[in-house]
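Dear Dr. V.,

Thank you for agreeing to look over these. As mentioned in my earlier message, I'm a first-year student in the group and I'm still getting used to reading structure tokens, so any feedback on how I've presented them would be very welcome. I ran two proteins. I've put each sequence directly above its structure. The first is here:
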Amino acid sequence: MKYALFLGCNIPIRLKQYESSSRAVLQELGVTLVDIPEFNCCGYPLRNVDLKAFVLSAARNFALAEQQNLNMLVLCKCGYGTFRMAEHLMKENAALREEMNAVLAKEGLKYEGDVQVKHLLSVLFHDVGIEAISEKVTMPYENLKIATHYGCHALRPSKIVQFDDPVSPSLFDQLVEVTGAESIAWPSKLDCCGGPLLGTHDELSLDFTQKKLTDAKNAGANYVATGCTFCQVQFDTVQKTMGSERGLNHQLPSILYSQLLGLCMGIKKEALGLDSNEIDITGVEKFLAT
């Protein structure tokens, strides 16, 4: 298994522990990652401003991966959803695809439509497999309750992203439970984290986040688990800010799935960046079976 790793814009700056923990886990599972320095932004920020610029940004990344005959592994679900949408638009509109290729040709690039875009969780579930992951879990969790947050861009529009059942997804839950933790049922499991509203409707954004965290806490969760850059920032960095701004004292730590999995595989917490989260998650170690 070999993939071109797409980090996007935010992970190298705001969430380095997502990269380090994912690399450590995937290496242990026999997955080879190839870095392509020429990768650019996925295009998401341009989506509602300039559709063609949005598609071109994605198409250039596709062409770079195709040039090395590699499929893409994406950590951010926003980036994953963006790539799947751009892929869909070019498949449905031959003229658009030709226009994108005319621009790419100036760099000696061409998008043929052969590259597959996969999210980290999809690679772990479908390509690596639950059984293979289970064999690498050396210290399963005991009595640990996790609230899985799927994220909007992985589930909708379902016909385009094709990540999991948009109404009753189970992929993430199964990945959590292979670690020995319990994936709990909770009311706002599939609701938005509030991240997309931050910066334009801040109070509403925080309302979304607060509701989700309260629901998860009331359902008995010890942690919220994420697999998306923006969702993790919202539940970690923004939640910490909320604590001071809204006087909340019921913080619920958010842990990246790669951190959760890596720890029970025996990977050192330094490689997983457990100390890098804004809200302390090192307490998860006490749930490991001894």
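The second protein is here, in the same arrangement:
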Amino acid sequence: MKRHILSTILGAAALTMFTVGCDSDDDPMSSASGDGGETGESGEDPTGNESSNPDPSGTTDAPDPSGTTDAPDPTGDPDTDTSDDTDDPTQGFIEDPDGGGVAVECDVWEDDCPDGEKCMPWANDGGNSWNATRCSPLDENPGQIGDSCMVEGSGVSGIDSCDSRSMCYYVDSETNEGVCVGFCDGSPQAPTCDTGFICTIVNDGVLTLCRAECDPILQDCEGSAACLPATGAEGFTCIIDASGEDGGGIGDPCEFINACDPGNYCANAAVVPDCAGATGCCSEFCDLDDPMCTPAEQECIPWFEEGATPPGYESVGACAIPV
């Protein structure tokens, strides 16, 4: 029931893949394209597109937006992700789309690169979404988790100034500056992060990040990040806002999880007024303790199914047309 509720609000696609990424001009802060959607997980992130896994609790960035009492099963809704829910992040390799063999050169969980190098996600196809891994040079004086950092070229180049267990994320495309965000520890089957962070595994297992927990109503993330459903986990995490200047408002079409303005989410077309013909459209998060939605046709519906709400998220709702 919980998964059905989520799919109604987010759409089948969202459950399958939540992608986060940057727009085609490599501006991580602009509209998501391609895989995208951390994010617009495409969407999660100006450093590149991020796709998520099908877990409604967050999906390789997929949220568990439970919420409508029983909405129609959105066959074919957009979802904010270009990563495919059929991909198992535990597989350990990804086929090169050009037929050149295995695109994953190293294991981000094991960091099995030679001394002086580290295993990093990157875009091996010249796109704006992390789709492979490679061994990259380790900075001589690497930054630690939480430190400011720099990327070389772009946020999806796979080359940065962070230490071996983190990557430069939340990158500003104009300055190439971001923040070192830690990789998940443990294993794909049992990932772990420090308290206050949630492990999200997206883009077919290439991107594994411990992102800060957040409140989707307060939108309490720092910088350009938006608080959105965590892929593959219960709760919400800070993902880079890839909505751009010309989209992301209530009712605007979207394809990726982070393609809507902070405070909004990419919803199933069926639950947003006048969204016919689009894969999905942006709608608002809402406070169940003070339920208000901008379009009169929508109601503030609980994001989580009754009895399945994680502590701290009891008042989180989603504006949707009741069905």
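From my reading of the second output: The first strand starts at residue 117 and ends at 122. The first helix runs from residue 2 to 10. Does that match how you would interpret it?

Kind regards,
E.
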